[in-house]
Amino acid sequence: MSTREDRLDRILGRLDREGTVGVDALSEELGVSLATIRRDLDLLEERRLLERTHGGATRKNVNYDLSLRYKEAAATEAKAAIARAAVAQISPGTAVGLSGGTTTFQVADAISERDDLVSDLTVVTNAVNVAHKLAVHPGIKVVVCGGIINPSSFELVGSFVDAVLASIWLDLAFIGVHAFSAGAGVMTVNEAEAHVNRLMAQRAQRAVVVADSSKYGRRSFASVGGADVFSSIITDDGLGAEAVTELTAAGFDVDLATTDGPTGGTR
Fold this sequence. Notes:
Elements: H1 4-18, E1 20-22, H2 23-30, H3 34-46, E2 50-53, E3 56-59, H4 66-73, H5 76-87, E4 95-98, H6 102-112, H7 115-118, E5 121-125, H8 128-134, E6 140-144, E7 148-150, E8 155-157, H9 159-166, E9 170-176, E10 179-181, E11 185-188, H10 191-202, E12 204-210, E13 222-225, E14 232-236, H11 241-249, E15 253-257, E16 264-266
Parallel strand pairs: 4-5, 4-9, 5-6, 9-12, 12-14, 14-15
Antiparallel strand pairs: 1-3, 2-3, 7-8, 10-11, 11-13, 15-16
Helix pairs in contact: 2-3, 5-6, 6-8
GO molecular function, one term: DNA-binding transcription factor activity
Domain HTH deoR-type: 4-59
Pfam family, one: HTH_DeoR
């Protein structure tokens, strides 16, 4: 039987493709009761990801895809903990790269709460929502890579991004990803975004993956790199000891952020 998270992902995916979904069809496809599907749809409606109709649901009229809106609502406590651990590694006066993604957006939010950083920091990003978040602080020099925007992720990609990144150096880069594992390394769903992420990481003295533990062991379409590109991974303390051992053996330092404290610890 599918887990709730799996069901929600599949419901949103079908809604993205078809625009509408029916309770009966979803129940048969996912192998759960009609009541379970109705509860799933009610939950997604509460998160403003769809509109309930008689016998099903329809996609809301939004400017970005449903999967991104779902990810923004998912694992928020873990992502906030990861962001706190990431920002603890930033020193005033440095140049920091931030890729797109819900976790890196949390990093931007955590930067905004540090008085010493908002008065003296340079941030380079290819994500327009991250830039918008930080642009209100006059003490932060925000450098936005030009390019073509992906409306599903708010990330800029293309040759303009490459030109900007090729002309700068960063002290530290935080890269958000869709999947990571000891064997396959770091991955994302879009090959153009993977290219930008890899280039940003390579332009940094130290590149760090920020990703919640639910992404461990998954596979995604486009490879970003392994321990040859990223020195460490910051994830939450939901990652098991066996996974930590596997990642360490693969060459990554693993920083586990605790959800009840400001930073995590390396294991």
